[in-house]
Amino acid sequence: MFDFLRSRKRPPADFTGLSLDMHAHWLPGLDDGAKTMADSLRLIGQLVDMGYTKLIATPHVMADFYPNTPQTIRAALARVREAVANAELVVELDAAAEYLIDEGFVHHMEANELLTLPGKHVLVEFAFVAAPANRDTLFFELMTKGYQPILAHPERYRFYHNSFEEYRHMVARGVKLQVNILSLMGHYGRTEQKIAEQLIDQKLVHLLGTDAHHEGHLEGLRKFLNTSRYSKLLTALPWQNREWVT
Predict the structure, then answer these.
(1) In whole angstroms, what separates CA 177 from the centre of its chain?
(2) Distance separating alpha carbons of residues 99 and 86, to the nearest angstrom
(3) What CA–CA distances, in Å, run from 211 to 69, 98, 159?
(4) Which residues contact 194 (CB under 8 A, 6 or more apart)?
(5) From the centroid of its chain, how far is CA 38?
(6) Would you state the pLDDT for residue 8?
(7) Most buried residue, 27, 183, 187, 242, by most Cβ within 10 Å?
(8) CA nearest neighbour of 117 among 142, 87, 89
(9) Which residues are paired to 207 by β-bridges?
(10) Which of 83, 56, 45, 9 is nearest to 246 (CA)?
(11) Going by DSSP bridges, is the β-strand pair 98-100/92-95 parallel, antiparallel, or unpaired?
(12) First to last CA, the chain
């Protein structure tokens, strides 16, 4: 049994203890998340019902599949904000991006075209087949430009599962780690769940995100709220999510 799961307290009813979700895909028509404005409103409405008061969308930026730009993302955010206001939903909305480390990322970085989370934090992800060979160099260059890298869902990169020292190495060099809450329910697999738990136990994780793409993901989040795990998770670490709520 992992340390942060050792709790018999009654679980909370919602995510008010985190308040902010900093990784999700509810902007419509930009990636493999919400397709329509109706999809966006359903996702946002359900996240609000689960206790979130601030939501930051992070659509994928991938050279070959989703060539989003700050301009396309901000335009979609403006449309969603208007629709949310018309629907009388009370929530703060913002947007950044989830950047795949691919051939286009260096261009975005050098051109200062990165759409960031609060405090110039940049959410990045790796391809699931292998880590980028220039990982440490890219992270160093990001930081020298004043950006703070956050690695999305490190528990899902199987090439690190037997090399746990790689996680510690990145954190020691200033990279922050963000775990998907759904990983703690085994949504991506039992191994991913185990790694997520170990990362939290070893105090290597800074942020939690839903990484919600569709309503099926939200059903998984609701199930997690009904377990004894979440109440302990809230106090496992000083989650940075709370620092970004205005």
Answers:
(1) 9
(2) 31
(3) 20, 10, 21
(4) none
(5) 22
(6) 45
(7) 27
(8) 142
(9) 178
(10) 56
(11) unpaired
(12) 36
CA distance 132 to 159: 11
The confidence score (pLDDT) of residue 1 equals 47
Model confidence at 7: pLDDT above 80: no
CATH code (residue 206): 3.20.20.140
Q: What are the tokens at 84?
A: 């949310």
Instruction: Please list, in sequence order, all residues whose beta carbon lies within 8 angstroms of the beta carbon of residue 87, skipping any fewer than 6 positions away.
Output: 41, 45
For the purposes of burial, counting CB atoms within 10 Å of the CB of 141, is it exposed (0-12), middle (13-18) or buried (19 or more)? middle
Residue position matching structure tokens 């890298």: 149
In this prediction, residue 5 has a pLDDT band, given cuts at 50, 70 and 90, of: low
Neighbour tally for 133: CB within 10 Å: 8
Q: Which helix (H) or strand (E) holds 60?
A: strand 60-61
- In angstroms, what CA-CA distances link 147 with 23, 43, 123, 139, 143? 17, 29, 10, 9, 5
In degrees, rounded to 5, the angle at the alpha carbon of residue 237 between the alpha carbons of residues 233 and 240 is 105
Which of these, 33, 163, 59, lies nearest to 117 by C-alpha position? Answer: 59
34 pLDDT above the threshold of 60 = yes
- What span, in angstroms and rounded, lies between the C-alpha atoms of 75 and 69? 10
- The CA distance from 24 to 55, in Å, is 8
Q: How many domains is the chain built from?
A: 1
Which candidate, 113, 116, 114, places its Cα nearest to that of 96?
116
- pLDDT per position as a tens digit, 137-164: 999 999 999 999 999 999 999 999 999 9
Give the domain extent around 106: 3-244
